[in-house]
Amino acid sequence: MSLKDKxxxxxIAFEDYLEDDSPIHDLRSDAIKTFENQGFxxxxxxxxxxxxxxxILKEDYSLFPxxxxxxxxxxxxxxxxHEIDTYKIVFVDGIYNSFLSETTHDKADVCLLSSALSKDxxxxxxxxxxxxxxxxxxxxxxxxxxxxEGAYISIPKHVELDKPIEIINFATGNETAILLQPRNLVVxxxxxxxxxxxxxxxxxxxxxxxxxVTEIFAEKRAHVDFYKIQNDRSSASLIxxxxxxxxxxxxxxxxxxxxxxxxxRNNLNFYQNGEHCDSVLNGITILEKKQHVDHNTLVHHxxxxxxxxxxxxxxxxxxxxxxxxxxxxxxKEAQKIDAFQKNNNILxxxxxxxxxxxxxxxxxxxxxxxxxCTIGQLDEDAxxxxxxxxxxxxxxxxxxxxxxxxxxxxxxxIPELKRRVNKxxxxxxxxxxxxxx
Amino acid sequence: xxxxxxxxxxxxxxxxxxxxxxxVKPGEVHAIMGPNGSGKSTLASVVAGKDEFEITNGEVxxxxxxxxxxxxxxxxxxxxxxxxxxxxxxxxVSVTNFIKTAINETRKSKGLKDMPAGExxxxxxxxxDMLEIDxxxxxxxxxxxxxxxxxKRNEIFQMAxxxxxxxxxxxxxxxxxxxxxxIVANGVNKLKNDDNAVIVITHYQRxxxxxxxxYVHVLMDGKIVKSxxxxxxxxxxxxxxxxxxEELV
Lengths: 437, 249
Known about the structure:
The complex is a heterodimer of chains A (437) and B (249). With 437 residues, chain A is α/β, with parallel strands linked by helices. Helices cover 22% and strands 37% of the residues of chain A.
């Protein structure tokens, strides 16, 4: 049975098991129909031209894992940013783990989508926001159809959350192969602020496919910093969909650090609904072996006087492949916008590939849009400069690659996170730089 | 110290150096002057080991050892330092961290352990003070957003830290105002002793008022066409290079 057929037949059982009065019941039925009609995307679709899902769809994924999936804190502690200085929403094989989590309802709701879907007091928010910015493409629809668990974050207006939130999805490997479909809803009220760190981490070499959907709503003057740490094992693949809906004067930043995993596809979609919005999309990708990462971004400028900044850096070794497909769409009404897109890549090996495709569709006549894309090797003059100071070729290369990727880190506002990512970069580049970064 | 014999070098099959002879002894300061495109910077790069240039003939000897096949880092370990005309920006790596790496890599090549952190800090402070470099400057990313003068001063700071046997200053005076020029020259003079040597590449006589050369060489079309004492620099400043060309004809 193909994965698609398996999903479709499982859906019937899944439906029966859920309570009928779920506020999103109708959404689910529509979504499964969309998935049934469209199926998994193939390379024939323009947006998937450089990323084939064939190899990862062959696995016989378990869709509903058993519940005996306890993991010990000591085994996973290193994946947490802080023991106490963050809120944590932790899932193990898709199931909430209260022991490892630290949620709150004090000033804001940092809890579970399952509670939000089942409790009456959350109903107004779920009805207002759930699936409102997500698009009905096949994979998002597949997630919607099976949506039952994930992070639910709701920050009331004027609240600046006191610590960052970590959303961590562990896969234990108790199943030979597992399909996970987390669904996150993040609503940040007027003038509120939040920092979120999201991570998917497999704990074994068994296959994992994660089809994740996150919706972010930033109300007027809200400020959201979202960090995605993608440093999973080479048996794990991730298809991420993150949708951000921005109202007037809001700032949403998504930083994506892609170092691990087998196949990663990041779909980032930003919609600017009010004036003076700022959208920031940054990424550092460092790949080796046969890894594949595809960044597919869309910034939809609907309102005037807004800004968007995209800066993606990639370093590709061995026969790794990267894709950057960045689209900026400027509506006729969106005058005086400033949209900036940059994608710089370094290929270290002759077998590494990057496909870069910037797309600008501009219907307004008074805008500033720029894009730049480079693919190259390391700068010879810079190499000579460092080597002439006694720094060996390998270290000089590492320093240069580090310097190349580094400026994307400037936007990281959590010092511990910055330190960790720095360390990861140094590790990935494979050299001890001889000093603390 | 440095002996260059009949050095010929090409880049992409174009002859740049066409038979250079130069003998620099310990304790000496040599100035190399010449019009644009005469090969001055190429000579500096070839001695430092830039592999873009191919040595087609001749020898470069450092303390009697032929170094022309060595990697740039190996030459640095042996005590050659090139102060760049255009220092490269390295974002994310501070001046301090860069120089620490450079020094410890050099020590490693000699089988020495890393310099203890306290000693390193003391050395950094001492050399920074000598060159009137603000401490804040040391934590900035290497050369990123530095003014022309700051870049040059930072080059001399690195030179002071590395204490090379042979320092080549490639147009270190360009981009410096007179005060910065004095500080930089003063730094170089303090580092100067009977065991090391300096080659100063410059267009202008100005720097040579402060770093006084024992010899001045004129490089034209890939060859040293005239050598003399420091008075030659004044003559060039006054008359330009045309009279030398005429002399040659």
